[in-house]
Write a structure and sequence with these properties.
600 residues; alpha+beta; 4-stranded mixed sheet; 4-stranded antiparallel sheet; 8 strands; elongated
Amino acid sequence: MLDRSVLVYDGQCSFCGIWLRYWQALCGDSVEYVALQELGDRLPELDRETLSGAAHLVTIDGTPYHGAQAILRLLAPTSWWPRLLLSLYEQVTSFAVVSDAIYAWIGRHRDFAYKATALLWGKEVRPQRYRLAEFVFLRLLGLVYSFAFLSLRHQITGLVGEHGIVPVNRVLQMLHGELGSRVYHLVPTLLWLSPTDQMLTALCGTGIVFAVLLLVNVVPRFSTLVCWVAYLSLATVGQPFTSFQWDTLLLESGFLALFAGFPWQVWMFRLLVFRLMFESGVVKLTSGDSTWRSLRALRFHFETQPLPNPFAYVMHHAPVWFLDSLTGWVLVIELGSPFLLFAPRRLRHLGAWLLIGLQLGIAASGNYAFFNLLSLALLLWAFEDQAFEWLPAFAKQSARKEARWSTTKWVRWPAAAVAVFIAFVGSAHVLDNLSPGTEPLIAAAENLIAPFDIVNHYGLFAVMTRDRPEIIFEGSNDGLAWQPYELPYKPSDVKRRLPIVAPLQPRLDWQLWFAAFGSPQQEPWTANLQIRLLQGEPDVLKLFSGVPFANPPKFVRAQRYDYRFTTKAERDQTGDIWKRQLLGTYLPAMSLESLGDNGR
């Protein structure tokens, strides 16, 4: 009997040397590694004629194995996937035949295999561990939650408070009457306990506290859970002001973060990034929008996006050939790079850096709340722990501690079942984008989890807007002289400088951008906003940066304008950033008297 297993390999094979060091890192001292050239008279039971053509493993009980089976037995104790492959090898004859054929082909082409390995992984292949990547991701997730809750804290009562634009207490009461007891599943929120302003602010405050705790790595698992529940409670009832794709992305990311430390978690996050980016590319081509197919989309994007920043003005005036080329690169990156996230290390890193560059470009030229920061955090899962060696020692120690709980069987297996379910539904979403009609096959699963935003559809800028209508609310006491209500960040004053507000999000500014493309009938909340301005509701007025009346005006209306960037020459001459043209009335002038009971 041996005191430990022995692996015999060809010491003159460069390809074998690369993977031998990898196996040593995985298996540690549980295996002795002996070069064929140094074997001598040891292990006489091995067939000397086959030693130069394949690796051999002799287990502690003296049983010899060679080739593919030897490698699978060597790696089986290290992870679940080599155990699965070994089981298939030993129980499925066809799998064993194919495995042996692949192993034999590599054995005959070792020089090519060495060059391919060096190209795809590098000359030093290390075990893929992600404890440090997880540690940094959770800290960034805490930062994203902090911005999300902090931004909502100053807006939530004006948006959906008891006297807000869309009062949550009325919405919940109406939904309960329509849906009965099913409403608690379809609208999961703690506000069922108390749909009040105090509860809204308490949820935001609680979220801020635990987001900061997650950021500084205090009770991280419990903090992750509290943040997710609090944000779900707010996002569920905040419609239409919490219906953005980064809201659902944060909920999906936060849910996956609840299972931090599991070995499959890295693949779940990569699948999420794949869906986010790939679906965004697919919808651009399948939406029928000619600007994407003709590569002209970025001629319009920087001017017509919801909240341009100063660099957007510069980009809009870039040469047409440059903007069209950039459009092509956006499509190439979104459609191609996501696949590289599942490739060997060097290709995976290339794909991740291309996507990181895309996110940095988007962040530099627009205000997209915490979307870019969250996307960058998710892309950390493309990198192994070697990329985070710069972390201080205490962070590395904390990362090792965080991963321990996932080894408990009563936690591991239910979590694995959840992962399989999420992967199945998420993959069905991707297939449905490529071949519409697939999704009804998973309708039951969708209906079960849809209210919790655990798995979502993505597709940013499927249709590029070519115009920029803007809704401006105005007040008057005589119906003749009208004064505008200025929002802090959306275009109104043609001379006002373009803002930088991300990673915070002014949600009324954003939602009015969407409303301008429709009608008041499609966006009924805009009429509610008109009423609140007539009433002079303080929480609603706080959402504005410029309120032209000390007391509520007698009349309020909403006009729709077309906004365009000025040319560089026009800006130099007038100082104006925008030029605008009146399109017509969006909401006619109203007074509280004319509204009657609807004004209460």
